[in-house]
Amino acid sequence: MTLEGTLAENLWQQNQDLAIASLHSPFVQGIGDGSLASDKFAYYVGQDAFFLEAFARAYSIAAAKAPDWQGFGVFYQLAGGVLQELNLHQSYAAQWGIDWRSVEPGTATRHYTDFLLATAWSHEVGVTAVAMLPCMRLYAFLGQQLALNGIPTHAYTDWINTYSSAEFEPLTVQLATLANQYATLSPLVSSTYRYAMQCELDFFQAAWDGV
Questions:
Q1: Among 71, 88, 135, 150, which lies 20 to 30 A Cα-Cα from 165?
Q2: Mean of the per-residue pLDDT values for the chain?
């Protein structure tokens, strides 16, 4: 990251407690060492596919509301990145025999997606970018941390490869740049970011609990 001193980076630093809690959650640690039970990962894949569809819609709403053509283009490109991520989930679904199109969202998933879509519809694009940024920034962080000592070969290698990759990092920077461009620090911006970070932690816990 080369965003030191920016709004996006300051918000990230202010919420390190939740980032570290996610990293040390039993679900993420189970992905890291390959010990995560397959049924827990299967539940996560279905829930995350549902979440990513809402994430792509939120990007599309933000694109439509962007005040300039440059912002429209970046939001549109980011939505395309989510569609590529969904392709990864399709391969997971085939591997684990999941019909992810028929998934019913759990409580934590619904809380997160309802929050994202409500934010995208009711607020300006800067607040929407801030609401979406924790997901991108956190996954890059988790992938990079799990890959620090090399990526082991196990059932979840592809997950670690995806989120630690040089291809994923630029998507995070693009969204951070939009947040820096369109948002200014306010109580709403701070609380929006932290709520999204808490949603991420709750999402991992729900996947661990299978609810």
A1: 71
A2: 92
Residue 159 Cα to chain centre, angstroms: 13
Question: CA 154 → CA 6, 128, 149, 161, distances in Å?
Answer: 37, 36, 15, 11
Cβ–Cβ under 8 Å, residues 134 and 204: no
Q: Write down the domain spans for the chain.
A: 12-209
Cα–Cα distance, 88 to 186 (Å, whole number): 36
Range 12-209 classified under CATH 1.20.910.10: yes
Tokens 């959650």 locate to 25
pLDDT < 70 regions, the chain? 1-4, 96, 100-101
Q: Where are the beta strands (DSSP E) in the chain?
A: none
Residue with tokens 């607020």: 123
Find out whether 148 and 31 touch, Cβ atoms under 8 Å: no
